[in-house]
């Protein structure tokens, strides 16, 4: 039987690559708010061309881990390495370069209501891309077309449906052509058909563009449809207890992971903010 707190690493599969090829390495990471430890001893890699799902029950720290991965919250202990560089100890110039190597879609989209959809997508290019106005518009229109929003460049965010806002947020995350995307609950609050269309978009990004995707999700249907590997965070032991293909973990993972993958998780609206 699996010892509590010991990660169950499922057997290797076709997408696994040597660790030297990892886009990101997380080493001995502890996350905490003051004296309250959220998760400890996290060790894992994000591999090129995969979809990695971050999952777990209520209060396990999925969103907190995402904030650590994108530079918004400094670890209490451990390192987040991009190409061997620690995101939290490099100098400002190197940190800026690392931040441009990934895009982020936040759960609610986080589009600026005072800007059009096109202006939202162009914003990263204006701040970091060094492009002239004509090139920014061309790139923004292309990214919107890529996510199925070709006619929304001049639209106001408030006029978009929930699924369209998420697609627009993904277009903005793709603005600088990053090899890595972080998606926070991409399917949350969407109807099943819209969620399925968004899943198809994520698969297109991975399979056709080679984009690596890390997604926080509680939606089992999306996890099984998209994820090459699942990282399970346990709220009780406060550490990762499984890492591997979701279907394999459902069959052979630790008992609590099998239970989670068979029965579902706490609805996102009731999840602890951590």
Question: Descriptors for this entry?
Answer:
single chain; 274 residues; alpha/beta; seven-stranded mixed β-sheet; four-stranded antiparallel β-sheet; 9 helices; 11 strands; 23% strand; globular; disordered C terminus
Account of the 3D structure:
This protein has helices at residues 62-69, 92-99, 117-129, 133-146, 162-173, 192-209, 220-226, 246-252, 255-263; strands spanning 8-9, 24-33, 36-46, 51-56, 77-82, 85-86, 102-105, 180-184, 212-216, 229-234, 239-244. The longest helix is centred in the last third of the chain and has 18 residues, at 192-209. It is globular and about 50 Å long. The model is unreliable at 10-18 and 264-274 (pLDDT under 50). The protein has a seven-stranded mixed beta sheet with strand order 1-11-10-4-9-8-7, sandwiched between helices. Strands 3-2-5-6 form a four-stranded antiparallel beta sheet, covered by helices on one side. The protein is α/β, with parallel strands linked by helices and 274 residues long. The chain starts with 7 loop residues before the first strand and ends in an 11-residue tail after the last helix. Helix 3 (117-129) crosses helix 4, helix 3 (117-129) packs parallel to helix 5 and helix 8 packs across helix 9 (255-263). It has nine helices and eleven strands. 42% of the residues are buried. GO terms for molecular function: ATP binding. InterPro entries: AAA+_ATPase (IPR003593), ABC_transporter-like_ATP-bd (IPR003439), ABC_transporter-like_CS (IPR017871), P-loop_NTPase (IPR027417). This is Phospholipid/cholesterol/gamma-HCH transport system ATP-binding protein. Keywords: ATP-binding, Cell membrane, Membrane, Nucleotide-binding, Transport. Residues 24-260 form the ABC transporter domain.
């Amino acid at each position: 039987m699996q010892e509590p707190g010991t990660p169950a690493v499922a057997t290797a599969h076709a997408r696994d690559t040597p660790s030297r090829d990892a886009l990101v390495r997380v080493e001995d990471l502890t996350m905490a708010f003051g004296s309250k430890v959220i998760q400890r001893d996290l060790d894992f890699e994000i591999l090129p061309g995969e979809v990695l799902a971050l999952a777990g029950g209520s209060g396990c720290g999925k969103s907190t881990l995402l904030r650590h991965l994108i530079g918004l919250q400094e670890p209490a202990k451990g390192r987040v390495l991009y190409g061997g560089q620690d995101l939290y100890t490099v100098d400002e110039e190197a940190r800026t370069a690392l931040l441009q190597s990934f895009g982020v879609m936040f759960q609610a989209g986080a589009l600026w209501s005072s800007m059009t959809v096109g202006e939202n997508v162009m914003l990263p290019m204006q701040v970091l891309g060094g492009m002239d106005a004509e090139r920014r518009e061309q790139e923004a229109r292309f990214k919107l077309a890529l996510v199925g929003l070709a006619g929304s460049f001049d639209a106001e965010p408030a006029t978009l449906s929930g699924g369209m806002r998420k697609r627009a947020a993904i277009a903005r995350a793709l603005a600088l052509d990053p090899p890595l995307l972080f998606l926070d609950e991409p399917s949350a609050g969407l109807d099943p058909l819209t969620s399925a269309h968004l899943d198809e978009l994520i698969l297109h990004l991975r399979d056709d563009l080679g984009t690596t995707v890390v997604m926080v999700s509680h939606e089992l249907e999306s996890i099984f449809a998209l994820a090459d590997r699942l990282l399970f965070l346990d709220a009780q032991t406060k550490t990762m207890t499984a890492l591997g293909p979701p279907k394999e973990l459902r069959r052979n993972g630790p008992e609590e992971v099998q239970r989670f993958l068979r029965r579902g998780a706490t609805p996102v609206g009731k999840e602890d903010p951590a």
